[in-house]
Amino acid sequence: MRAHPSPWLTALVVGAASLATARSALGEEVEPVPRWRSGDPIPSLAKAYQGQLLIGAAVTHEMVLRSDTRRFLEHQFDVIVAENEMKPSALSRGEGRYDFAAADALVDWANRNGIKVRGHCLVWHREVPAWMFASDGKPLSRDVLVRRMRGYIHDVVSHFRGRVWAWDVVNEAFVVSEPGVQSENGWRRSTWYEVIGPSYVALAFQFAHEADPEAFLFYNDYETQDPAKRSLILELVRSLKESGVAIGGIGHQSHYTLDHPAVGSLEASIQEIARLGVMNHITEMDISLRERWNAPVPPLTDELRAAQARRWAEFFRMFRRNADKIGAVLTWGVNGESSWLRPPDEPLLFSAFRPTRAFWAVLDEATGTSE
Ligand code: XIL
After folding, report:
1. What is the pTM of this model?
2. If you measure from the C-alpha of residue 138 to the centroid of ligand 1, how many angstroms do you get, rounded to a whole number?
C-alpha cells in the first residue's frame, strides 16, 4: 500500500496527544478516536450498527504495522479480512512449507482487540502456488491433487485454529454466462474441477472442518444475485447439507456498480439462502462509479457522489431489513484510492482514512435517519 497523505496523520497524532494529556489528568481512559475535521471524531460504523450487523473491511498487513491506521481500524470495524496475505500463494512456500509472519501479525492484532477474522481463502482457481498443480508433464491424478489440497487445508486451518472466525473455503466455483470462461453445467472448468470433479467442494469443506470444527465455513462468490448462479448455490448448499458437510454460510462478494445489480435481486438470494438454514455474509463490497462493468469511470461530480451514496444506503437499508440472515458486511478495502478497482474509481467509504459521502449515507442508514 502506498503512504497516506500526511496532513491527516499529523492532525491525528497531534489530536490524540492533546486528548491523552487532557484526559489522563482526569484519570479517564483515552479513546483513540481519529479526527476527520478539527474537533470532530469520525463516528464508528461498527458502533452505529452494533446489535444489527457486524461491520468490517479487507485490510493489509501495512495498515496493522502503523499505530495510527491500526487505531483507525479498531475504531471502525468488528471484523477484518486480509485482502491478500492469507491467500494460498501468499502463505505457501512449497508443499508443507509456509510463511505465516504477515498473516499471524494481522490475526494476532485482531484477536487481541476483539476483532473477528474472516480467512480468505482456501481453494480458488487463482493465486494457487505452482506446486499444487505441478505434474512433471504427466496428467495430474485425482488422488495426488486431493492429497495436496487436504495437506494445505489441514496445515493452514489448524495453524489458525481458534483464531479465525470464518473461512472462505471455496471461492468462485461457478460461472454463468461469462464470455471466454469455460464452464460445464455452471461449474467453472478450473484445474480443481477438471481433476477432482464437483466433489472438490465437499472435500474442501470436510478438510477444513476436520482442522477446526468451530470455524464458520463459507462458500464465496460474485454475482450471487444472478438467478442462474443463485440456483447453483442453493443446489450446492442443499447437497452439502444432505451429505452432512458443515457449511455455515454463503459469502456474497458484492462488487457492484451504480446500476448493477438491483438491490431486490440480492435480497432474494439472501432470503432463499437463509431458508436453507445457513447464514449470509457480504464479504467484499464495493460500488464502482461506473454504471456497468464495461462502462468507463465518469468524472467525479457531486451528482455522481450523491448517486453512489444513495446506492450504498439502499443496500444497507436492505441489509438492516435482513440483519438476522446476514450477520456481517465487509467492504473490499478501506480507502477508495487504494482499492483493487484503482483510481479514478472511488468505490469505498473512506479516502485517505477520511469519510466519503457514501460513509455518511451508510452511517445515517444505521438509525434509519435517511429513510
Ligand atoms: C484481489 C485483491 O484485491 C488484489 O489486491 C489482488 O491483486 C487480486 O485479488 N475477488 C476475490 C478477492 O475473492 O480475493 C480479489 O482480491 C477480488 C475479487
Report:
1. 0.90
2. 31
